[in-house]
Amino acid sequence: MDEFVLLFRMDIITREAQPSPEQLEDYMKQYHDWVGGIAAQNKFIGGTGLSTEGRVLKYNDVITDGPYAEIKESVAGYIMIKAKDFDEAVSLSKACPMLNGEGNSIEIRKITGSHSNA
After folding, report:
1. Which range of residues forms the domain containing residue 52?
2. Angle CA 61–66–68, to nearest 5
3. pLDDT tens column, 29-67
4. Which of 39, 70, 73, 93 has the fewest beta carbons closer than 10 A?
5. Quick check: is 118 in a domain?
6. Can you state the percent helix, strand and coil of the chain, rounding each to 5?
7. Whether this model's pTM surpasses 0.90
């Protein structure tokens, strides 16, 4: 099994794009059910949400506020999963309820390095 990180990208800044408290509660239940399904297959490694605050450090010691205030799409969180290959990682990701939101996306990246289980 390989390890993959799923980066959840969505508009976390624009006020109009944010769900109501009731919608958020419903979305979080759907999300936790989806993650629970991955965990039930023993393929969930971990993950978390990210705050809207941040800094971006660039070449030549340039520091800007983030996350990427000039664009709406930001990384809202991530999880790490185990899958036999990219196809399985994509298949597991397709069921994520976050994809029901217009403009939302999941970036799937294989984790490389000595800590990854091959």
Report:
1. 2-110
2. 105
3. 999 999 999 999 999 999 998 887 788 788 888 887 765
4. 70
5. no
6. 35, 35, 30
7. no
